């Protein structure tokens, strides 16, 4: 019934555009109304759930995804295979990024990657003669479900203030942390707490579960001794650690941002370890007997957005190139391969959800971005928006890694804490510790140092600098843009100091491990046999920090902010009928892990877009 009403409203919506501005050429638009109300580009945590929700609300929706569907492939479906998934050529897009404007500094990154010319990579500091520099690998997944199909599935919420700052910037109170909880509850299908917990949802599409932490009850385990010492060093009760490790990381707390605590480790997976992602929701929507009007077009690269020529240009559709491995970040791409190009129109809106690297690229190829940059590549300017592709931000990640004299038997320890020099009362570090090694990304990551490896992985949750950028290298949509994170550009010394403080606290806790684990032979940041100073550690983190949570290249901002790309309803400023819904929309890095926050943002966008449609 509802969907019928919606359809008749849609038919009243007439297409007023007469011309399509296509590159420099103006061509006739297709005269008939499109079969699609909405076109969504990209099926990750931003676009995937949004397309499903629009279709479920009765709007005919086309979801376009450059990759294929690996939902049944165990490499992707079973969360413990995540490292294999992120290395898999089947879906991998390799972005070779820079960490700074200083090539000499970047060349000191231990996992710098080179093309040897014989089809293999060299990773390290002494490349063979003739090898070509690629840069620092930053993997992304091009597949139905986006990076939520190859990530580790860690589900964590932003700081409350990461939402509240959007209220401050835009005046839109619907972004308050208290209100955003609603969207978490809409998407969540909690798989670890008894029904009725008011902070949680039980009927959504995203399964959440937590790791077993019962090992922490065993006081004789070296890991429990470390845990107790960590408690002491961070102002928690060492006698209560067996309970504290079950604190609900997805719970709702007053003054949450100021709490230092151990937590359970939540993932977007079922308790049986099956990955839960937009892929499941899209497939469930397609399979639903209600026959929701969702069409999914795989292996299709969107090359630009099409606009009419109204005074305020309106997005009326997209241009696509069809085929597999068309984008040059795809390691399977064959030089010179192209696919047929066509145009697909939308009656209502185009929504870009290509992720933090691709959404700004698509906008720029479409004539929306810094005018000087577009003009350099002969792209006609539809709207001069200087913020597109700027303010790229990411967590700084690093690790304390060592080999014990014997294995450190344990499960994971998850701790969110505040280091002494943090500028506010807010906690700044998310760490997870266990018998693993994770040192960032390069082809073939991670290194397995054997059963004695022990690590605390560190995420700085609130980087003070967001000076990175995604900029075009050409007007060719198959080309990859230039990505430079400019790590530590602003107040970098402070963030480095906070990372060092964190490492020092954790290292001190490790010394409680006792026999037979001690002494730990540290690999970094203080390799055995070197002098471990704050300065040496800061230098280590400056050169070796890595990241994989890029955001903010199409940031939401206020009317008075010239660098704002979106308004608070995800609308691209200065044009009509175009929104961006993905991790690029966050004005500040949303806590330690962006996947669940992006799915919350997508649920909010769904509600906002449907509300607008019903108003019209
Ligand atoms: C190895 C790895 C591990 C991670 N681990 C975690 C974790 O444990 N927890 C966490 O919270 N986050 C993690 N992340 C980050 C998280 O997965 C991403 O932040 C999140 O997926 C971003 O969602 P998105 O919708 O913005 O973009 P994406 O997930 O990147 O989705 C974008 C989609 O758009 C498609 N696309 C792009 N351009 C085009 C185009 N021109 N035409 C058609 N389609 C296009 C892509 O193919 C892709 O499927 C990890 C990321 C990586 C790479
Ligand atoms: C928002 O603005 C208020 C009033 O100026 C301020 O007290 C608060 O700290 C700001 N919050 C954030 C997250 O910026
Ligand atoms: C605690 O851990 C020790 C060391 O691994 C083990 O020998 C012991 O059986 C464990 N105790 C319990 C109650 O599980
Ligand atoms: C836009 O359309 C108007 C009216 O049809 C036409 O006069 C004008 O030349 C067009 N402008 C462009 C840039 O195509
Ligand atoms: C460490 O520092 C001390 C004191 O400055 C110095 O004597 C020693 O040689 C240094 N050791 C190493 C391995 O650099």
Automatic annotation (TrEMBL):
Residue stretches making up the Glucose-methanol-choline oxidoreductase N-terminal domain: 355-369
Any one GO MF annotation of this record: flavin adenine dinucleotide binding
Record-annotated membrane-spanning stretches: none
Gene3D superfamilies linked: FAD/NAD(P)-binding domain (3.50.50.60), Glucose Oxidase, domain 3 (3.30.560.10)
N-terminal signal peptide: 1-29
Record flagged with keyword Flavoprotein: yes
Keywords on record: FAD, Flavoprotein, Signal
Binding site for FAD: 143, 151-154, 302
Domain of life per record: Eukaryota
Classification via Pfam families: GMC_oxred_C (PF05199), GMC_oxred_N (PF00732)
Cross-referenced PROSITE patterns: GMC_OXRED_2
Cofactor or coenzyme needed: FAD
Family, as annotated: Belongs to the GMC oxidoreductase family.
Protein name per the record: GMC oxidoreductase
Organism: Canariomyces notabilis
Taxonomic path: Eukaryota, Fungi, Dikarya, Ascomycota, Pezizomycotina
């Amino acid at each position: 019934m509802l969907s019928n009403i919606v359809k008749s409203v849609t038919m009243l919506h007439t297409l007023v555009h007469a011309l399509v501005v296509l590159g420099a050429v103006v061509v006739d638009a297709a005269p008939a109304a499109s079969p699609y109300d909405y076109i969504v580009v990209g099926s990750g945590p931003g676009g995937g759930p949004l397309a499903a929700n629009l279709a479920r609300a009765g709007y005919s929706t086309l979801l376009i995804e450059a990759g294929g569907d690996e939902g049944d492939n165990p490499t992707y479906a079973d969360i413990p295979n995540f490292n294999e998934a992120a290395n898999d050529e089947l879906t991998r897009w390799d972005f070779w990024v820079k960490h700074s404007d200083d090539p000499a500094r970047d060349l000191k990154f231990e996992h710098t990657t080179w093309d040897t010319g014989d089809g293999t990579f060299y990773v390290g500091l002494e490349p063979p003669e003739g090898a070509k520099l690629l840069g620092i690998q930053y993997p992304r997944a091009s597949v139905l479900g986006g990076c939520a199909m190859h990530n580790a599935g860690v589900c964590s919420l932003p700081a409350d203030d990461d939402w509240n700052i959007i209220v401050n910037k835009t005046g839109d109170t619907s972004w308050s942390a208290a209100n955003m909880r609603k969207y978490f509850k809409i998407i969540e299908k909690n798989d670890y707490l008894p029904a009725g917990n008011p902070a949680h949802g039980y009927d959504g599409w995203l399964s959440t579960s937590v790791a077993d932490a019962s090992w922490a009850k065993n006081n004789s385990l070296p890991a429990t001794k470390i845990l107790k010492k960590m408690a002491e060093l961070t102002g928690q009760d060492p006698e209560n650690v067996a309970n504290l490790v079950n604190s609900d990381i997805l719970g709702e707390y007053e003054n949450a941002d100021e709490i230092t605590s151990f937590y359970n480790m939540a993932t977007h997976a079922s308790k049986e370890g099956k990955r839960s992602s937009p892929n499941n929701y899209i497939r469930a929507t397609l399979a639903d007997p209600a026959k929701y009007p969702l069409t999914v077009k795989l292996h299709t690269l969107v090359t630009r957005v099409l606009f009419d020529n109204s005074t305020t240009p309106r997005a009326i559709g997209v241009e696509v190139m069809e085929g597999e491995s068309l984008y040059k970040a795809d390691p399977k791409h064959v030089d010179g391969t192209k696919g047929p190009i066509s145009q697909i129109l939308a009656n209502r809106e185009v929504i870009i959800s290509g992720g933090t690297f691709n959404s700004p690229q698509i906008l720029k190829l479409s004539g929306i971005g810094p005018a000087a940059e577009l003009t350099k590549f002969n792209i006609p300017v539809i709207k001069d928006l200087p913020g597109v592709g700027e303010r790229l931000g990411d967590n700084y990640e690093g690790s304390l890694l060592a080999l014990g004299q014997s294995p450190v038997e344990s499960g994971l320890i998850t701790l969110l804490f505040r280091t002494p020099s943090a500028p506010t009362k807010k906690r700044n570090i998310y760490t997870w510790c266990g018998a693993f090694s994770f040192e960032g990304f390069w082809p073939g990551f991670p290194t397995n140092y054997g059963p004695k490896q022990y690590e605390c992985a560190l995420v700085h949750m609130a980087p003070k600098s967001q000076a990175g950028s995604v900029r075009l290298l050409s007007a060719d949509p198959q080309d990859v843009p230039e990505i430079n994170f400019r790590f530590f550009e602003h107040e970098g010394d402070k963030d480095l100091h906070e990372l060092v403080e964190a490492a020092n606290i954790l290292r001190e806790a490790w010394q409680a491990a006792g026999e037979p684990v001690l002494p730990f032979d540290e690999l970094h940041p203080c390799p055995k046999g070197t002098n471990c100073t704050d300065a040496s550690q800061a230098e280590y983190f400056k050169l070796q920090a890595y990241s994989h949570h890029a955001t903010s290249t199409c940031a939401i901002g206020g009317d008075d902010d010239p660098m704002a790309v979106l308004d608070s309803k995800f609308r691209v400023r200065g044009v009509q009928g175009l929104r961006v819904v993905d991790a690029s929309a966050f004005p500040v890095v949303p806590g330690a892990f962006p996947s669940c926050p992006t799915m919350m943002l997508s649920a909010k966008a769904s509600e906002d877009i449907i509300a607008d449609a019903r108003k019209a």
